[in-house]
Amino acid sequence: MLFYSFFKSLVGKDVVVELKNDLSICGTLHSVDQYLNIKLSDISVIDSEKYPHMLSVKNCFIRGSVVRYVQLPADEVDTQLLQDAARKEATVSTR
Amino acid sequence: MASGLENYVNQTVSVITSDGRNFIGTLKGFDQTINIILDESHERVFSSTSGVAQVVLGLHIIRGDNVAIVGQIDESIDSRLDLGNIKAEPLGPMVH
What we know:
heterodimer; A: alpha+beta; SH3 type barrels; five-stranded antiparallel β-sheet; 2 helices; about 25% helix; B: mainly beta; six-stranded antiparallel β-sheet; 1 helix; mRNA binding (chain B)
């Protein structure tokens, strides 16, 4: 639930999602769900010459299971807060 | 928050599967595991020699395990694409 809440706080921000087939998609985070499925709006594929497969797609839904990384600008994330929350979640889950 | 596919139902979508294939069709239904019902579907096969579309079956179910991306197709852009001239390597499979 922690990362679901974390991503909810980032809705509206621009992110780059790197998938497990090496495709990277830049877009505005539209929504996220409990499986960390991601919906991006106004997407642009990084290296679109190599990957013209999504030229006609402006909005897309990405299944959480195929995400390798979600790249975020550092100034959008309070790393201290995230670290503290993760530590708390870790102690709760090991009880 | 439910980032669902409800908004895409009855629209033309591009489904990219975990083996790197691209299916275009009308999204008729889906469920929590992202099993997809795709109507009037065809597969767009990209190759470094030419971009070709094949017509597959009209109605297909794609099991959610194999779905990677469901993209909403903008018809105004798609109709202007010159598929015969697009050359690209096919997408790779998902490596977990």
